[in-house]
Every structure is written in C-alpha cells, then in structure tokens.
Write a structure and sequence with these properties.
With about 220 residues, the protein is α+β, with helices and mostly antiparallel strands. It has a single domain, classed as Pyruvoyl-Dependent Histidine Decarboxylase, Chain B (3-Layer(bba) Sandwich), CATH 3.50.20. The protein contains 4 helices and 10 strands; from the N terminus they run αβαβββαβββαβββ. The strands form 2 sheets. The chain has a 5-stranded mixed beta sheet. Strands 3-7-6-9-8 form a 5-stranded antiparallel beta sheet, covered by helices on one side.
C-alpha cells in the first residue's frame, strides 16, 4: 500500500491529539520565590541611540558588572515572601544558565555626562505583634541629585506610607534606622534590615547604575 502525503499527515495529526487527550493535566498555584542573591553594577558609554540611549551601552555595562547581562530580566514589584532566604551571589549565578529568565526586584537609574546617579534598595522585614514574620518589603529608589544619605531618608518616608497603606498602623519615620525594630500604632514590628546602593559620577555621555535582587528557586502554592 502506498500512502499519500495527505493521509500520512492526517494519521500523524490524529495520533498527536490521541496522545494529548491521554496526558495527565496538572494544575498548580502561584509560584513563590524561596531563594535570592543580591548584586549591583554601574557602567558608562559614549554612544547610544536617540530613543533608548542607555539600553545597549551604559545599562548593558552595568548589568555586566553585576554579572547578570546574559539573562532575560523580568522585574517584580516589591515583596519577598516569608521563608525566602538569601544565598551567596556566586552560588546564585551557578543555579542559572545563559539566556534563562531571571526574575528580579530591580532599582536602576540612568543619566548623562556631568550627573551623579544613584540606585538603591531598602529591605525591611514586617512582623506581626507577636513577632511572626509576615513579609519583607523592598523599596526601589533612583535619582540624579539625592545621594545615599538623603536617599535613605526619602525611602524611610516611602516605607512609612507602604506600612500605612496596608493597614499595619502608623509610625514616626524619624525612628526608623537600619537594624532597629520599631512598633507601629497597631503593634506590628518594622525592622529595616539593609540599604544597598550604587552610585556613579558620569564622565562619558551616558551612565547607568543598577541594584538587583535576583530570585533563583521557586515553589508552588497548593490548589
């Protein structure tokens, strides 16, 4: 028997759909990061396009210095879940491979010749009134005139707003400092843990700085 190309194609299609119908379907919940590393970098360049002057030059150099230029970077908002732990940068990079998707919380700032730019992350643990960890806030910051001391003060203002917005109570931001545990009006415990920043005085035409939390491993919620 000689099979026509159309007949072969039809049989192959039917076989595929039969196989597909027998496959076990798995439903999974939301993914939860369980480990991360922190890195930062800066770079500058004399060349850039009119529309995106930093992308292939100074920003790429900053990512290269940070060790993450060879990955496809996705940016989250600002939360580290409970039981998500920090690992060494080298160990984190060993867990990912060239061209993979790297999910991050990222602060960045770009500027031009003569400016001084800064990017920063403020990591703050939030606990309930009995001391149980609820979540860790990460605030991002980027500016070209307020450097590290002023940046931290402004980020403490933002932290106060985030706490109030979520119903954790009020506090006096002037009490906030790295390492200190402060109670809100509702008894929640706020502990700023780390202020990580990178700055650059730009001497070439374009400059960029980045500070990055990069997630490396995940688990899933039960559904």
């Amino acid at each position: 028997m000689i099979w026509s190309p159309r007949c072969i194609l039809k049989c192959a299609r039917n076989s595929f759909f039969l196989h597909l119908s027998k496959m076990t379907k798995t439903t999974v919940g939301c993914r939860i990061p369980v480990s991360y590393f922190i890195t930062k970098g800066k770079g500058q360049n004399d060349y850039g396009s009119t529309g995106i002057p930093y992308e292939g030059g100074s920003y790429d150099k900053a990512l290269t210095v940070a060790g993450i230029s060879n990955f496809n970077i996705i940016t989250y908002s600002s939360m580290i879940p409970p039981n998500c732990h920090r690992i060494d940068k080298k160990l984190g990079l060993d867990k990912i491979s060239l061209g993979c998707v790297l999910e991050t919380i990222k602060a960045e700032m770009n500027g031009t010749k003569g400016q001084e730019v800064i990017a920063a992350l403020l990591i703050t643990k939030i606990m309930d009134p009995v001391g149980k960890e609820l979540v860790t806030f990460v605030l991002e910051y980027g500016d070209n005139h307020n450097l590290s001391t002023k940046a931290l003060e402004l980020m403490f203002h933002q932290l106060k707003n985030m706490i109030q917005n979520r119903g954790f109570g009020t506090l006096d931001f002037r009490q906030l400092k790295i390492g200190a545990k402060i109670k809100t009006s509702k008894g929640y415990i706020i502990q700023p843990q780390e202020f990580i920043h990178e700055s650059l005085k730009i001497t070439k035409n374009f400059g960029s700085v980045v500070v990055v939390i990069a997630f490396t491993e995940f688990t899933w919620l039960d559904v």
